[in-house]
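Thread: quick sanity check before group meeting

JM: Hey all, I'm pulling together slides for Thursday and realized we never actually wrote out the predicted structure for the chain we discussed last week. Dropping the sequence here so it's in one place. If anyone has concerns about the input, flag it before I start.
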Amino acid sequence: MRYNYLNTNELQSIYFGGGTPSLLEIPDLDKILHTLSKYFHWNENTEITLEANPDDLNSDILQAYKKLGINRLSIGVQSFFDEDLQFMTRAHDASQAISAILLAQDAGFENITIDLIYGCPGTTDEMWLSNLERVSALNIPHISAYALTVEEKTALHYAVNKKSVILPEDEKVHHQFELLMDFAENHQYDHYEISNFAMDNKFAVHNSNYWKSVPYLGLGPSAHSYDGSSRSWNLANNALYIKNIEAGFPICETEVLSRETKYNEYIMTGLRTKWGVSMDKIKKEFGDYFANYFNQNAAEYLISGHLINNCNNFYLSREGKFIADKIISDLFFVEDINALR
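JM (edit): ok, ran it. Output follows.
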């Protein structure tokens, strides 16, 4: 139905994302890849990632993934401490997390990334540093690390409101982020995006393309797609998604992106990365008005040292990463520019 969306049949990456795609049986994954191969081309160097929970991985499954052509694993470790995992209501324990990584390495997976979460109520600085040292000891080439967030209508949200869970102060969360950056510097991890760190240039191709505004096609319920000028999102309800496909009805909604939305998305994604945003690109794609707007609003952060200008490329300093959301928000275009169109 949608193979023409990308205007190319050459793929740079394939990403089986969550939910939990490791719940799929091997024949299901094989069928998906076989069907994709009818419409798209890729080779052995194309990044093919699968997200997996540690408790879903064993030697047989990992060998089967390799045979399918999956060459990158994203393992949802979150922590190497059982008390953290119990707080996060994860199905696996710390020993399963370690075992999953070792089994993946034994199966020949060199390109592995794990998720870690800091800022949990019970996670001391010593525990967080121990998590990071475990990453180094296991020789894991890529880390995605996130501060604990509280989503509405979740059990954690309810517990926080009832004060049965007390979240740590912002200062503690910021300090653990600082410990993370120190660890990265001392262990040769390139801090190439706010939450992502890679050794030996093992940047996530798929995610990097998101941040660089490369078009992508999302397949499945609630998946999003982007073609450079518009964004679309599939129906989130599984049953309705299937029903509409069978009936030949639309399965997605589409929004044509305005100039100011494109500018804001470029600022939001670009400033999260080490590559930053380019003034030349802002002028070329959005015009002098936006360039002047950016310069005016960036001035205070350049003076304070939170932003750095290197040959008309702007990126966050180490100090700027602590207030990245505020800086990005302040650089967003919020005026009515209908007259400029």
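AS: nice. The chain has 14 helices and 13 strands. The first strand starts at residue 13 and ends at 16.
JM: adding both to the slides.
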